[in-house]
Design goal:
The complex is a heterodimer of chains A (about 375) and B (about 525). Chain A is of the alpha/beta class and about 375 residues long. Chain A has 14 helices and 16 strands. Chain A folds into two domains: about 240 residues, Thiamin diphosphate (ThDP)-binding fold, Pyr/PP domains (Rossmann fold, 3-Layer(aba) Sandwich), CATH 3.40.50.970; about 130 residues, Rossmann fold, CATH 3.40.50. In chain A, helix 1 packs across helix 2 and helix 1 crosses helix 7. Chain B has a five-stranded parallel sheet with strand order 7-6-5-8-19, with helices on both faces. Classes of the chains: A alpha/beta (about 375), B alpha/beta (about 525). Chains A and B meet through strand 9 and helix 9 of A and strand 2 and strand 3 of B.
């Protein structure tokens, strides 16, 4: 074990190098560029262990990754914002084709107008594409989660997106415990999934099918993804045994007697965690896995602590409805015996969450059992 | 679909069978269709021949197929290959690019292939009605061919003792080798066509008898009556009319000719006579005198040039005044110069010249002999064609007349709809219509000796020439290659129209609906 000072982007690249992939096909875009640069450096030094393909666009990056994965390769790619939007068709295709791919998306607001702040709308708007999504709040978490994502993706034959905030995580440096290369490779092991494309066995794949057949495939995809929390927990148990750290699909801090909790995903969860000692009778939950949505884990937590109110920090806004995490949460708790009230703090535009803003928001939040939306820009 | 290892449920669509079970053509709402456009060569063809279609078959070296296309309009490509003046070549679009297609040589090659390939089959039972054909020229032979193919018993009555009419008696050997003509005639005989030579209707066989024996009659005796000049000395010894001269010459007899020879006239018979005379022993000098200018000569210009190259002297704008004789035999001719004015041709009496000679061949044109009609009852029905109807014309036009007559007879006897008799009148596909930017066969610029190679230069002009562009461009693999040809497969065509857009030959249309 060795601690190294590195940014979140570098941590993602190091994780890929520790896992050992057959192919990286990626296109640089702010704020993800450092991931591509770091991987290219590994390739230049002969340390990547696989091929690095410079592609002409994000669409090509994912198309190339898809092809390699269909041929049985372990692949990684990374993008952000407009790059992710440009991949959209292939994002659907990869999950429908049931190929394991790990992709990092570094959150950045999608234009117009051009913007660089880390609004989560880019990845959250890919909610229904059939990819798993895990949100990270720090560089160590990024490194560990990227490694784990390969095992999760290959076990379920579903692609997995690891997401973190641009600049707050991608560009800030932390001391990161970097796993030993051999230990990491031994933990991950070689890919075990079968290649879909095998030249010696000619076949057509993903050809035109009927609606009935499609329904079976969609059902299987859905039911398979619902197994992700269980599989993820098993992976983390093994990870903890090897590396001494682990993560849940949600991670929570609930002080005794707390009836109100704050729910956040990504970098804002770290701010909430840091501010928590200043708050009275308030807990927090970091939503790590967004797809599949950890409904059961959340409901169990709320019931166990008799939670009355959840304040959701949404660094995003679905125009016409509001914060996306708040909507998802409301859908998840529907039907609970005593569902908590959901309040939404919207940080659309990727604006920063300061402890002051959080405290102000909590102070001004009423207890009425109705949806309440507050805008971060009003609380400066 | 491969099963999920844990759930045994399908994970993704996987099949070892072809995805061709999905008939994606069902989604189509526009449909490409191969509808042949009129090519300039077909428009020029006197037989309405499907020229680009048989060129395409030759390109693929499918000679039998080429022959089958050919014979729909022309059963004697060897004969026309030699004798036709090939107006088809005049407007070939390829000539605007580099050099036009050598259609005659490919046509001749198909004809010779056909003659070489022919093997007498089993005697066919000809069970249908007996039909009489009067005259064994190209019109009569063509009519006999199509009737015979349709199963009719055909008897051809020929006045002369030689079969072939103008083909054997009018056209010289150097333009049509007799070995070729004889092969064609033998073929017709082997297929069951009866020929009766030396039989003149109304003389050796009465019309009553003819109609008693046959249910239909095709009259194609030709136009053998020579026009007269109406000048003194015209009937002297040593003066021939061109048809008599050519008949004797072409039937191998030596017509009596003394040097030097003067041919009077400007048509094809005049040129044939001049060139034939020049080939006879003892003849050293042949002069052809025509009343109008060279540009006004009705003869086929390449033949005129050939005559000139062989040494025939050409004199224009001169009319014969009288034939001079010594002891009743021709010794020379006197000519007046002429000029064309508003009233027509005018003789200039003030300027004349004299030309001594041993022989004069009068080639002033032929006329139909209408007496055959006057000997027919008003009530009898008959078909007529060839020079008898058109006046002196070409072998190809006569062949077409024979075919049309045969089709009309068959339609009447078998109660079929009347055949289309008109030639197409639409505008032909122009050079500008073609989409040569996409064309793949532009690399061979000069005419080729090998017929297959020459045929491959054809641009199609409204007909598929199997260039394969549609196959390359089709995004749905809805073009199949069948025996070297490209066929639209409507099971998978989604009607995008790319083939229609890219076709260099403009052989496709795109229509609405399925």
């Amino acid at each position: 074990m060795a601690y190294e000072l590195m940014s979140g982007s570098q941590a993602a690249a190091v994780a890929v190098q520790r896992v050992g992939v057959d192919l990286v096909a990626a296109y640089p875009i702010t704020p993800q560029t450092a991931i591509v640069e770091t991987l290219a450096n590994f390739e230049g030094r002969g340390e990547l262990g696989g091929e690095f393909v410079s592609v002409e666009s994000e669409y090509a990056a994912l198309a190339c990754s898809y092809g390699a994965a269909a041929a049985g390769a372990r692949v990684f790619t990374a993008t952000a914002s407009h790059g992710l939007a440009y991949m959209h068709e292939m994002i659907h295709w990869c999950s429908g084709a049931r190929v394991p791919i790990v992709m990092v998306n570094v959150n950045r607001t999608i234009g117009a107008p051009w913007s660089l702040d880390p609004d989560q709308g880019d990845s959250l708007s890919q909610r229904d594409t059939g990819w798993m999504q895990i949100y990270c709040s720090g560089a160590q978490e990024v490194l560990d989660t990227v490694m784990q994502a390969f095992l999760l993706s290959e076990e379920l034959l579903l692609p997995c997106m690891v997401v973190f905030d641009g600049f707050y995580i991608s560009h800030t440096y932390e001391a990161v415990d970097v796993p030993d290369l051999e230990k990491a490779r031994a933990f991950i092991g070689p890919p075990v999934f079968a290649a879909q494309v095998q030249p010696e066995k000619p076949a057509n794949i993903h050809a035109l099918i009927t609606g009935d057949m499609q329904a079976e495939l969609v059902r299987n995809r859905h039911e398979t993804m619902l197994r992700a929390p269980t599989v993820f927990k098993e992976i983390n148990q093994r990870f903890a045994e090897t590396f001494g750290r682990s993560y849940g699909v949600i991670d929570s801090v609930i002080p005794p007697g707390a009836k109100k909790i704050i729910l956040a995903a990504g970098a804002t969860a770290e701010t909430v965690r840091w501010t928590l000692p200043e708050l009275e009778e308030t807990g927090m939950v970091q939503l790590r896995m967004f797809r599949p949505f950890p409904r059961e884990d959340l409901c169990n937590l709320f019931e166990a602590h008799d939670i009355e109110q959840v304040v959701v920090v949404d660094r995003n806004c679905s125009t016409g409805m509001g914060g996306i995490l708040a909507q998802e949460l409301q859908a998840a708790i529907y039907g609970m015996g005593k569902p908590p009230a959901v309040k939404d703090l919207i940080l659309a535009g990727g604006i920063d969450l300061t402890p002051d803003m959080l405290i102000k928001a909590l102070t001004e939040t009423g207890s009425a059992d109705k949806v309440e939306q507050k805008w971060g820009v009003d609380l400066r | 679909m491969l099963p999920d290892i844990t759930t045994q449920k399908p994970v993704y669509a996987y099949g070892t069978k072809s995805s061709a079970v999905n008939k994606t053509g069902e989604w189509r709402f526009m449909t490409p269709e191969r509808v042949p456009g009129l090519s300039p060569c077909r428009q020029g063809c006197l037989l309405d021949g499907e020229v680009p279609a048989w060129l395409e078959a030759v390109k693929r070296e499918q000679w039998e197929e080429a022959w089958q296309i050919m014979r729909r309009n022309n059963p004697f490509p060897a004969l026309t290959g030699y004798t036709c003046f090939h107006p088809c070549t005049e407007n070939c679009n390829r000539s605007q690019l580099d050099s036009g297609i050598d259609i005659p040589s490919v046509e001749k090659a198909i004809g010779l292939w056909r003659l070489d390939q022919y093997k007498p089959g089993q005697q066919r039972d000809l069970l249908k009605d007996e039909i009489a054909v009067i005259g064994s020229g190209p019109a009569g032979l063509s009519c006999a061919y199509y009737l015979n193919q349709a199963g009719y018993r055909v008897t051809v009555y020929e006045k002369s003792d030689q079969i072939g009419g103008m083909l054997s008696l009018g056209i010289p050997e150097y333009r049509l080798p007799r070995s070729i003509l004889n092969k064609e005639l033998n073929l017709l005989k082997e297929e069951g066509v009866e020929f009766i030579t030396g039989c003149e209707i109304g003389k050796n066989l009465s019309l009553d008898e003819l109609y008693k024996k046959h249910s239909e009659v095709f009259l194609a005796p030709g136009a053998w009556k020579s026009r007269k000049a109406g000048i003194p000395g015209e009937d002297s010894k040593g003066v021939w009319n061109a048809l008599d001269f050519l008949s004797e010459f072409n039937s191998g007899k030596q017509p009596e000719v003394k040097d030097p020879v003067i041919v009077i006239g400007g048509g094809n018979a005049a040129i044939d006579s001049a060139r034939s005379a020049l080939r006879m022993s003892g003849v050293n000098h042949v002069t052809l005198v025509y009343r109008r200018s060279r540009a006004e000569m009705p003869a086929y210009q390449p033949e005129v040039e050939a005559a000139e190259n062989e040494g025939v002297e050409l004199i224009f704008n001169a009319l014969p005044g009288k034939i001079e004789t010594v002891d009743g035999r021709v010794s020379g001719a006197e000519f007046n110069y002429s000029k064309t004015n508003r009233q027509g041709l005018a003789v200039d009496k003030s300027s004349s010249f004299h030309k001594p000679c041993g022989t004069v061949i009068m080639a002033l044109g032929q006329e139909q002999d209408g007496s055959i009609f006057s000997s027919l009852d008003k009530d009898v029905s008959f078909y007529a064609g060839g020079d008898l109807v058109t006046g002196p014309a070409t072998v190809s036009e006569a062949i077409r007349a024979g075919r049309v007559a045969a089709e009309a007879m068959i339609a009447r006897l078998e109660n079929l709809p009347e055949p289309e008799l008109c030639l197409p009148e639409e505008d032909p596909v122009s050079f500008e219509d073609l989409y040569l930017e996409a064309s793949l066969n532009l690399d061979i610029k000069d005419q080729q000796e090998m017929p297959e190679k020459e045929a491959s230069r054809c641009l199609g002009c409204g007909t598929c020439n199997s260039c394969g562009i549609c196959y390359l461009f089709c995004p749905d693999m809805a073009i199949d290659i069948v025996d070297g040809r490209y066929e639209l497969n409507m099971d998978y065509c989604k009607g995008c129209g790319i083939c229609y857009r890219e076709c260099p030959s403009r052989a496709l249309i795109l229509k609405g609906g399925k």
